[in-house]
Amino acid sequence: MKKDFWLERWERQEIGFHQGEVNPYLIKYWARANPAHSGKVFVPLCGKSQDLIWLRNYGQQVLGVELSPLAVESFFSENGYSPITTRIHNFQQCAADDLKLLCGDFFDLTADILEDTVAVFDRASLVALPPEMRSRYAKHLVEILPPLAKILLITFEYDQMRMPGPPFAVTQDEVDALYGQYAEIELLESISVLEDNPHFKARGLSALHENIFLLTLK
């Protein structure tokens, strides 16, 4: 999946993946990922999510990475911020009020950028990637995170033959295969959500689960 796919989705405002509300599993489980209510947290492929505001209000220093300049601009303007813009490595960084968004390619991130990160919230990153990119994504993420960092990960599980992604289906077995050598993995909850998502039913699904995992890096 090429970068232009996501850039064009934002340009055309085909952003059905964007949630206008804070993710309920973030609210329910974030204390498991970061009980200290402090420190730097990382949100990959963050878009203009309201989860960023919730995390900042929780007491976090929030770092997001997003490919689309339009998404970054929209996030700050829609939330009433005039960010300070600088260059950090290959990224344009926009910062305001303990919120920093790096505009650029996730795979250009380095360990020094994520230094002191205590936790990660991945709601829309792993599931946005096709199978051939997911192992590269997981390997890169764990390589640039500090030891013992925690990842709150949300995935979709459904019959991929019935519906093409994104969002892509990521099974519990795949999560184990991707992260098992790097992290302790706990399945916090698995929830049937098809009735709450009629657009997925309209696309041909007869079953849909959201799985919420807590990963603790070794």
How would you sum up this structure, described in words?
By secondary structure, this protein is of the alpha/beta class. The protein has a single domain, classed as 3-Layer(aba) Sandwich (Rossmann fold), CATH 3.40.50.150. The chain is 29% helix and 28% strand. It has helices at 3-11, 24-33, 51-58, 69-78, 131-144, 172-179, 198-202, and strands at 40-44, 61-66, 84-88, 91-96, 99-103, 117-122, 150-157, 183-192, 209-217. A 9-stranded mixed sheet has the order 3-4-5-2-1-6-7-9-8, sandwiched between helices. The protein is globular. The relative contact order is 0.15. The model has no long low-confidence stretch (mean pLDDT 92).
Q: Please tally the β strands and state the result.
A: 9
Shape: globular
Number of helices: 7
Biggest sheet: strand arrangement: 3-4-5-2-1-6-7-9-8
Number of separate structural domains: 1
Rg from alpha-carbon coordinates: 17 Å
Helical content band: 25-40%
CATH class (first level) name: Alpha Beta
Uncertain segments are none
Helix/strand class: alpha/beta
- What is the name of the CATH topology? Rossmann fold
First-last Cα distance: 30 Å
The CATH homologous superfamily: Vaccinia Virus protein VP39
The CATH architecture can be named as 3-Layer(aba) Sandwich
| Oligomerization status of the protein chains | single chain
Mean residue pLDDT: 92
